[in-house]
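Reviewers asked in the last cycle whether our approach scales beyond single polypeptides. To address this, we selected a multi-component target totalling 180 residues and predicted its structure end to end. The input consisted of the following lines:
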Amino acid sequence: MHNDIKQVLYSEEQIQEKINELGEVITRDFKGKNPLVICVLKGAFIFMSDLVKKIDIPLEIDFMAVSSYGQSTKSSGVVKIIKDLDVPVEGRDVLIVEDIIDSGLTLSYLVEILKGRNALSTTIVTLFDKPAGRTVDLEVDYKGYILPNEFVVGYGLDYAEKYRNLPYLGILKNEVYSQS
Ligand SMILES: O=P(O)(O)OC[C@H]1O[C@H](OP(=O)(O)OP(=O)(O)O)[C@H](O)[C@@H]1O
Ligand SMILES: [Mg+2]
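The resulting structure, written as structure tokens, was:
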């Protein structure tokens, strides 16, 4: 285990099991459709790559980079688009792939943008959900694990851009925050 981590919440194996389950359900629910699967960068990049391998229907992928946390453990409340999609979403069934939903601000903003561009449908899949952090109403279609109200890192999630490469999800030691 990394020296800055005080507790592992979900191991690599547990995460893969959950992704297998999510992939099966999504495969069943999207049969006959050709969804555009959107990865919300950066955090969702590992989940996206593991999940699409478990979705057994034709699909296309695209990427959008947004950021609201910066170097902090609290959302700035302002969601910035850093990279937009390459393809139009008009008339498409869109599946948005997110690593974590906390306040809900990032996704409520994204869903509004995609609806404004006339997506046929918008569906959300998140690997982790922190319902206690929510400040806006958001309907989430598929959730992996429900988390306690703690700042977590690993499996794509960062603190100040670090720890994304940890293969598990963990909680940082308190002194890591106080040092920065
Ligand atoms: O529900 P919210 O409170 O909006 O939080 C969730 C969002 O915050 C994180 O992204 P961040 O803005 O840190 O960018 P990153 O993915 O590049 O780390 C995470 O990856 C989600 O996209
Ligand atoms: Mg982040």
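Residues 43, 69, 158 surround magnesium ion (ligand 2) (CB under 6 Å). We regard this as preliminary and will revisit it once experimental data from Aim 1 are available.
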